[in-house]
Amino acid sequence: MVSFSIACADDRITRLVEPSAPSALRRLSAMEALARAGLTVGLSISPVLPGLDPDELGLEPLLTRAASAGARFASLRWMELAPEQRERLLRHASTAFPESATRIRRVLGRRPADARLRAARELDFRARCRALGLLAEDELGASNGAARTPPTQLLLFSPPSFR
User: Fold this and answer.
1) ω into residue 47 within 30 of 0, thus cis?
2) What is the structure's pLDDT at 91?
3) d(CA 146, CA 142)
4) How far is the C-alpha of 32 from the C-alpha of 19, rounded, in Å?
5) How many domains in the chain?
6) In terms of C-beta distances under 8 Å and separation of at least 24 residues, what long-range contacts does 19-25 make, across chains too?
7) Residue 54 lies in a domain
8) Which domain, by its residues, includes 135?
9) CATH code at 24?
10) Domain assignment of residue 134, yes or no
11) 47 Cβ contact partners less than 8 Å away, ≥ 6 residues apart
12) Does residue 149 lie within any of the structural domains?
């Protein structure tokens, strides 16, 4: 099973958090190639930036394109930043992209999305997935008869732990 993460359909926004990552189009093309080769593939919209609404995120086009590329499942993962990490990221991004500082602050949000907003967005996401025949990532494991532990998000700006 291969999951492709894409933060946003707009590559200009994605470059703010993933400056060296391939474009959404390239990732979706790779997804299609692997699906044609017989692998189970899916889309992880991650990290979801709290300042973007579903239209700015490009939710419908991403899910539609992933389904067309052979995705069988999709997931949504929110950007999780502690307050000091958020401020550090905002300072770094504003320094790296001074002409975009205001937009960066809006996209990343001044604070994490509240629980009600997250729940509403996740319900909307699941409904869109169902309409396209995409399973939730946890449903895919159940349909294959295999239990799967969902991945955890690594901490931003922290060294990796190799235990």
Assistant:
1) yes
2) 83
3) 6
4) 23
5) 1
6) 24/62
7) yes
8) 2-80+115-143
9) 3.30.750
10) yes
11) 7, 17, 77, 78, 79, 80, 153
12) no
